[in-house]
Amino acid sequence: MPEGDTVWRACKRLDQALGGQELIRTDFRVPTLATTDLSGRTVIEVVARGKHLLMRLSGGLTLHSHFRMDGSWHLYRPGEQWRGGPTHQVRAVLETAPWTAVGYRLPVLDLVATEAEGTVVGHLGPDLLSPDFDRDHAIANLQTEPDRTISEALLDQRNLAGIGNFYRTEVCFLLGLHPWLPVSAVDIAAAVDLSRRLLKANLRNGAQVSTGNDRPGQRTWVFERAGKPCRRCRTTISTATIGEPPRDRITYWCPACQPEPKDRATC
């Protein structure tokens, strides 16, 4: 699933290509926007808010999208062949003179008044990649449920926005936190600070890296490495699901580097 850094990079590419450009043709292939025509409007800017993408247009409208598991926006020059997937997966086409933006497999795509963006992103906690990130607010949000597992708390976008399964898993490893450890037993400030550092560091990369090694197969400590030896101690990496359906997620951890709490029942 795309996380905060992935969405931020997508917004930057879209903003650089479309910002200041007039839309000359739009084609929406979702029922709620099927008759919508945004041609003639200018793309003012494209910004990220956590995992949400906000394309602000002239006339006070914002096109809001969310990638969820596998959505994406692709940019093509006029006449260039589209390569983001089969055409039946296209949900939106936004055409300007120099570029065409094509949205594939977008599960969330809606149009709201720019002044009403809070209706789609107002529930989010502080954005880890925002230049005015409110660290104290994020810490306070996480501490409101002290008995919740740190894994679930970090993933909850109402606490702080931008963390997905990759960062949640890697942050827990780097801080030696068992996935089921309660928030009350965690240095929350350290978890928030490390999460932000990792996301910001990866803004410069095309891939998500937590080990400092950008070579394929070497980028993560435990994420998606179930059954493989820990890079630190060679203990076999464990995996399990955590959380309640439908929000349960697979997590990964090293049983030696992230020891299980002595009284798991209290976690």
TrEMBL record:
Name the GO terms of the biological process aspect: base-excision repair
* EC top class named in words: lyase
Q: Which GO MF terms does the UniProt record name?
A: class I DNA-(apurinic or apyrimidinic site) endonuclease activity; damaged DNA binding; oxidized pyrimidine nucleobase lesion DNA N-glycosylase activity; zinc ion binding
Q: What is its EC number?
A: 4.2.99.18
| Domain Formamidopyrimidine-DNA glycosylase catalytic as annotated: residue spans | 2-91
Keyword Cell membrane assigned to the entry: answer is: no
Pfam families, A to Z: Fapy_DNA_glyco, H2TH
InterPro entries hit by this protein: FPG_cat, FPG_N, H2TH_FPG, Nei2_N, Ribosomal_uS13-like_H2TH, Znf_DNA_glyclase/AP_lyase
Q: Does the keyword DNA damage apply?
A: yes
Q: Where is the FPG-type domain?
A: 221-259
| Source organism, top-level taxon | Bacteria
Q: Which UniProt keywords apply?
A: DNA damage, DNA repair, DNA-binding, Glycosidase, Hydrolase, Lyase, Metal-binding, Multifunctional enzyme, Zinc, Zinc-finger
Its family remark reads: Belongs to the FPG family.
Q: What's the protein here called?
A: DNA-(apurinic or apyrimidinic site) lyase
Naturally occurring in which organism (per UniProt): Kribbella albertanoniae
